[in-house]
Design goal:
Elements lengths: L1 H7 L1 H26 L6 H12 L2 H32 L14 H4 L1 H20 L12 H8 L3 H28 L5 H30 L5
Helix pairs in contact: 1-2, 2-4, 2-8, 2-9, 6-8, 8-9
Length: 217
């Protein structure tokens, strides 16, 4: 089958990672924008959450797309890591990074950390099992009560540091994988990756920090 041959190749897995990465970055941008509604007030963010339930086909369509994207992204990344390790069965006696950033060198561990955080985040704010005072369709209450606990806010801040590094290298490399690479566009690619990697985590982190400082009650 054509897809089987495509998936079986290294470049195929990288393209799948790039395409699913675009889907996930798009969702993250939408998610951080929705989160910032909390600064408008309870009615804004609670109303947004309620409005999503009036469009179940869209809501579940997005959820299925995200689930498929996450699974494909993780499986492709895992298989590429296994292939890379198999290509060099003998470890470096002394590893000296060449032309690589800290973001690229921590992509694998950062990805694992983000996957674990994603599970916690869903249990915390979507299903409520990890939230001691969870109220369905009341995100303002759920967020402000959760982030009053300093170590819960700390988990989110640390996770956003991992997200920043993952977004920077992922956004930069996905354009390269898709063939969008030229001296004339590389500077723009780097600026775009930097803006995404800084703005998105800062947007997310602003919420727990505002709660801890008492700006959101």
């Amino acid at each position: 089958m054509p897809f089987g041959r495509f998936w079986g190749s290294t470049i195929g897995k990288k393209v799948v990672m790039a395409v699913t990465g675009i889907v996930l970055v798009g969702y993250i941008l939408a998610h951080v924008t929705a989160n910032l509604l909390i600064f408008v007030g309870p009615s804004a963010i609670d109303g947004y959450a309620a409005s999503l339930r009036t469009l179940p086909v869209l809501l579940w369509g997005v959820r299925v797309l995200l689930l498929v994207s996450v699974v494909l992204h993780v499986v492709a990344a895992t298989q590429l890591a296994v292939l890379a390790r198999a290509a060099r069965p003998t470890a470096y006696q002394r590893f000296v990074p060449q032309a690589s950033s800290s973001a690229s060198r921590t992509m694998r561990w950062g990805g694992v950390a983000l996957l674990l955080f994603l599970v916690y985040h869903i249990l915390h704010f979507t299903t409520g099992q990890a939230h001691s005072d969870f109220i369905h369709l009341a995100p303002y209450h759920n967020i402000t009560t959760a982030f009053r606990v300093w170590w819960v806010a700390g988990i989110y801040v640390v996770a956003m540091v991992a997200l920043a590094m993952h977004l920077y290298h992922g956004t930069w490399s996905m354009f390269q994988t898709l063939g969008i690479e030229h001296e004339r566009v590389n500077a723009a690619r780097r600026r775009f990756a930097t803006i995404i990697a800084v703005a998105v985590p800062l947007g997310f982190v602003s919420v727990p920090i505002a709660v801890l400082l008492g700006a959101l009650r």
